[in-house]
Amino acid sequence: MSIFIASLGFGLVTASIIAIGSMGFTLQFGLTNVLNISFGAMMTFGAMGSLVAEKLGASMWIVVLVAPIVGALATVAVGRLVFPIFSRRGSGLFEMVMVTLAIDLLLQYLVDAVDHEQIFSFNFPSGHSFHFGPIVLTVTQLSIIAGAILLFVSLESLLRRTRLGKALRAMAGEPRLARACGVPTGRIVNVTWIISGALAGLAGLVYMMNSLTVDAFTGANFLPFVLGAAILGRAGSTVGAVVAALAMGMATEIAGAFGGSAYSTVAGFALLAIVLLTRPSGLIGDTLLKEEVTL
Amino acid sequence: MSFYLSTLAVYFGIDLLSAWSLNLQFGFAGVPNFAFIIFQAVGAYTAAILTLGPDTGINSFQRYFFGASLPYPFPLIFATLAGGALSYLIGSFSLKRMRRDYQAAVLLIVSLIAVQVVSTVVRFLNGSNGLTGIPKPFSGVLNISVAAYQWSYAAYVGVVCIIIYFILRRLLRSGWGRAVRAVRDHEDAAATLGLNGTKVRMQVFVFGGMIAGLSGGLLVQFINAWSPASWSYAETFGILTAVIIGGVANNKGAIVGTLLVQIIFLQLPSFLPQIGYPGLTAALQWVVIASIWLIFMAVKPRGIIPEARYKVKQPKGLITHEGDKAEQLLANLAAGEKDRVAK
Questions:
Q1: CA-based nearest residue to B262, from B10, B12, B13
Q2: Which of A220, A231, A261 sits opposite B102 (nearest CB)?
Q3: What is the pLDDT of residues A213-260, one digit of tens each?
Q4: In angstroms, how far is the first alpha carbon of chain B from the final one?
Q5: A112–B112: do the CB atoms touch at under 8 Å?
Q6: How far B114 CA lies from chain A's nearest CA (Å)?
Q7: How far, in Å, CA of B201 to CA of B184, rounded?
Q8: How far is CA A239 from CA A161, A162, A168, in A?
Q9: Which of B20, B94, B73, B113 is nearest to B217 (CA)?
Q10: Interface residue ranges in chain B relative to chain A, Cβ cutoff 8 Å
Q11: Do B102 and A35 lie within an 8 Å CB cutoff?
């Protein structure tokens, strides 16, 4: 029983890491309709940026700040410079996936070529451990959970309470109508790239803070969970992404606690397969109608 | 030199089988199989454990389940069947009618997770170290030099390629082949003709998976080792690049694409003198492949040899003057459309 409760604690940490990534992913997917696989490379970029800052001896806060900045810059660069080349040619949704996959591999192997295929260790103080019954969590892990909650609340209030959020939701729902109503669509897309890119960088950073190692393929290895949570939670829904991340985090850690690390990946995967089998309509749903890329 | 050339020839044959199989699924049926490489992998693992013999525990460096030493054609037959069976399993939840980008993402997730699972469970297929020492077929019986063995293996793979090419050609020209393309081009219209899109996709998926399994079996019996490093999701990307560059839904184009991508960009550099640290060439190769992919997607998305236009043979006596006229009109319309798009 205590193993089960302890794994709930770790599940919460894993869920928070997945949630930060999948919120960013679902935001850009919901708005631009591009299933952006290069999100994986953006997470690696964020983590690598923080790693470099840490190796240069920057203070802890700068290390934490570098990841979202690097992620946002890289995402804006790709989103503004590369994607329009293809969307202007009338590439469909699937062609855009292939483009983002190519960009992902390109960036990932560029990092691999530059970093000499090494696995780096990230030195980050984990702080004291706190005991909540059988649950033991370090300060770092607690701040990851707190950070995820904070990000979720601020993203939700941005979407629900501000003019910008209203414009974002309008564009996600009906891009042409939004444009006709005078929503500056180009600027809104830029904002989306910035927010989601920053979240990608942060996701890479918190993943690295938890595992304390990083290499060129960190983002690619973590991507299935982020992508899976975003797909389970339906495109564009931050609440859905967080709930799906919670389910995935718990499932992976509980299965891992009882069956070993291999089962944790299987559990996450099984969850996705079950949902695909049992409620495919929830997946296809209204998004089947949107056949265009909005950039 | 002869050794390298014969090795390249074998790789070329196996990559051709992969390219045709993926072209069948992706090009002709429109299934974005981003998990393609796991079907080759399952064939390779099946052939490996069916030739390695039972795991007696003597080899402490290598653990695997089951294990048998079956005579020659059986490992390959079971590899083919395993490819088909795994395709059926994966296809059962990924081939429903859904947005193709979702489908691609789901299959990509399957591929990424399969690698993680096989790498972590050591007792299953020896984890990330993989299996080694897989015997070559007839190597103890045939009393020939290494070079002769290599060339005969290349010839044998070549024969398999020719057989598969003609089977595919025959199938794709049949009514079934038309059904496959119809479902790809317009699923609703195909449904009104009584075609079940999901079922047709499943047939293509399983058939392609069987060819993939066969190619894996042929590959592992030649290179004698197989590990998760041999089937990362980037490998699927290499085969897909070959298909896209050569020509989507065109098996002759796939030959050109395979020659360019797999042989010239992926295999040849490993025979060149090393630059930088070990592994730099491998990383740069993928950078180059991804760049070529992007350029082709932007400039020539239908590939070097695009899909051949399907011609309907009209029965004699039906070809009237009016028919010719109509055909001419259609051709003109198509040409006009092309000009419009070009503008």
A1: B12
A2: A231
A3: 898 888 988 888 898 888 888 777 888 889 989 988 888 888 888 877
A4: 50
A5: no
A6: 9
A7: 9
A8: 15, 17, 16
A9: B73
A10: 32, 34, 92-94, 96-102, 104-106, 108-110, 112-113, 116-117, 120-121, 233-234, 237, 240, 244, 277, 279-280, 283-284, 286-287, 289-291, 293-294, 297-298, 301
A11: yes
For A210-220, how does the pLDDT look when each residue is reduced to its tens digit (9 = 90+)?
A: 888 898 888 98
Q: Write down the architecture of domain A2-288 according to CATH.
A: Orthogonal Bundle (1.10)
Phi then psi for residue B226, to 5 deg, are: -155, 130
**B297 contact residues in A (CB cutoff 8 A):** 86, 91, 95, 98-99, 102
Q: Residue B43 in contact with residue B82, Cβ under 8 Å?
A: yes
Q: What is the pLDDT of residues B228-269, one digit of tens each?
A: 888 988 889 889 989 988 888 889 999 999 998 888 887 777
- Considering only alpha carbons, which residue of chain A is nearest residue B280? A113
Reported as half-sphere exposure (CB side, CA atoms, 13 A), residue A141 has a value of 18
B233 neighbourhood in chain A, CB within 8 Å? 220
- The two counts, helices (H) then strands (E), for chain B are 13, 2
Q: In the structure encoding, which two tokens stand for residue B238, read together?
A: 């290499």
Max mean pLDDT among A135-139, A142-146, A222-226, B319-323 falls in A142-146
1.10.3470, 3.40.1000, 1.10.150, 3.40.50: CATH of B2-311:
1.10.3470
Confidence of residue B341 (pLDDT cuts 50, 70, 90): low
Q: What is the pLDDT of residue A287?
A: 47
Domain ranges of chain A: 2-288
Nearest to A262 among B94, B109, B117 (CB): B117
Q: Which residues contact B337 (CB under 8 A, 6 or more apart)?
A: none
The answer to whether B20 and B254 have CB atoms below 8 angstroms apart is yes
The complex's ipTM works out to 0.83
DSSP element (H, E) containing A46: helix A39-55
As a whole number of angstroms, the distance between CA B97 and CA B77 comes to: 31
Chain B residues whose CB is inside 8 A of the A276 CB are: 93-94, 96, 106
Nearest to A35 among B92, B105, B283 (CB): B105
| A139 touches B at CB < 8 Å | no
Find, in chain B, the residue whose alpha carbon is nearest to that of A222: B112
Query: Is A31:A236 a contact under the CB 8 Å cutoff?
Result: yes
**A71-85 mean pLDDT:** 93
Mean pLDDT of B304-332: 62
Residue A288 near chain B (CB below 8 Å) = yes
